[in-house]
């Protein structure tokens, strides 16, 4: 009986708080809603419960009804005044368990509302889906094939390599003792929102030969991560939460971007993501060229295993 009364008191306190928040939302933020469904939207959002709490509520309702059927006295499960006067304590301490860890958990949830998921979605739909797929003999693979024929070279992978260091910074010209910049791929112009925008992809030559062969790579850094890095350096846009959650945002961006690329038919076989720690355990900067060598060797090994 005590547990049922306690839970009933908690749900009543929560109900009153949700009603209060609904009123505040209606008075202070009414412009955030369309006039025709303002009240309904506020109430629907205010009184949404996750599955766990819905099942718990149903369980205790069933327990309460069962108790009433046994005792024949509904007062056995109704909260008394001694319970009801504790409701303000719930209002004061309802967020006691909230901490910075909640930001991490929120970012990891698959709701698509966080900074990282937004960057990944914009990157795919505003750039990769436009510049990479084949339309009129101007897709990435076609331009790479033309480049190979024209310059008598070989690409290490027939995809766009996108670098994603955990510090999020990528220089305008990739710095590596193992790489040198080559002539870029042919520029592709696409009408986007009434403007023909140029889409370019840089090409780098790997100086160190692999199995006696020189490889080229169409490669660039993930520009949304660089923009996020720049925003963190500015007092106008940076917040302590952004700096605190930098690695969470980087990981979520990588995972969400990888999933979108794999799911979208236009980009599924067009991109090679390389997410890595920018520095080794001694604090030395990782050479991007070494990552590319490992990429080619792993692919060569996989092909050899398939042919055996």
Q: What does this protein structure show overall?
A:
The strands form two sheets. The chain has a five-stranded mixed β-sheet, with helices on both faces. A two-stranded antiparallel sheet has the order 3-4. It starts with a helix and ends with a helix. Helix 1 (2-28) crosses helix 3 (51-71), helix 1 (2-28) packs across helix 5 (87-93) and helix 7 (115-131) runs parallel beside helix 11. With 308 residues, the protein is α/β, with parallel strands linked by helices. The chain has twelve helices and seven strands.
Q: What Rg do the Cα atoms give?
A: 28 Å
Arrangement of strands in the largest sheet? 2-5-6-1-7
**Percent helix among the residues?**
40-55%
Shape: elongated
Q: List the total number of helices.
A: 12
Q: Which regions are unreliable across 5 or more consecutive residues at pLDDT < 50?
A: 302-308
Largest sheet: 5 strands, mixed
Beta-strand portion reads 5-15%
**Overall number of strands:** 7
Structural class: alpha/beta
Distance between the termini: 70 Å
Mean pLDDT equals: 90
What is the helix/strand order? HHHHHHHHEEEEEEHHHEH
Task: Throw out a few tags for this protein.
308 residues; two-stranded antiparallel sheet; 12 helices
């Amino acid at each position: 009986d005590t547990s049922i009364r306690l839970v009933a008191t908690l749900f009543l306190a929560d109900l009153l708080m949700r009603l209060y928040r609904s009123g505040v939302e209606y008075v202070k933020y009414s412009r955030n809603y369309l006039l025709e469904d303002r009240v309904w939207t506020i109430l629907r959002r205010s009184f949404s419960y996750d599955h766990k709490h819905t099942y718990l509520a149903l369980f205790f309702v069933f327990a309460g009804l069962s108790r009433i059927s046994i005792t024949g006295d509904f007062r056995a499960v109704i909260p008394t005044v001694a319970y009801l006067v504790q409701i303000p304590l719930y209002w004061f301490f309802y967020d006691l368990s909230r901490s910075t860890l909640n930001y991490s958990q929120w970012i990891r949830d698959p709701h698509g509302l966080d900074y990282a998921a937004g960057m990944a979605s914009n990157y795919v739909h505003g750039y990769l889906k436009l510049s990479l797929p084949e339309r009129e003999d101007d897709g990435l693979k076609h331009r790479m094939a033309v480049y190979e024929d024209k310059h008598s070279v070989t690409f290490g992978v027939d995809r766009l390599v996108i670098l994603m260091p955990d510090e999020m910074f990528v220089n305008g010209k990739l710095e590596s003792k193992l790489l040198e910049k080559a002539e870029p791929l042919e520029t592709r112009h696409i009408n986007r929102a009434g403007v023909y925008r140029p889409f370019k992809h840089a090409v780098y030559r790997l100086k160190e030969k692999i199995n006696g062969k020189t490889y080229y790579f169409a490669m660039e850094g993930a520009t949304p991560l660089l923009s996020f890095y720049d925003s963190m350096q500015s007092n106008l846009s940076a917040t302590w939460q952004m700096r605190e959650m930098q690695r969470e945002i980087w990981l979520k961006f990588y995972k969400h971007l990888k999933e979108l690329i794999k799911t979208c038919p236009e980009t599924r076989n067009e991109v090679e993501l390389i997410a890595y720690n920018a520095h080794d355990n001694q604090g030395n900067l990782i050479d991007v060229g070494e990552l590319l060598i490992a990429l080619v060797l792993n692919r060569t090994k996989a092909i050899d295993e398939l042919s055996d």
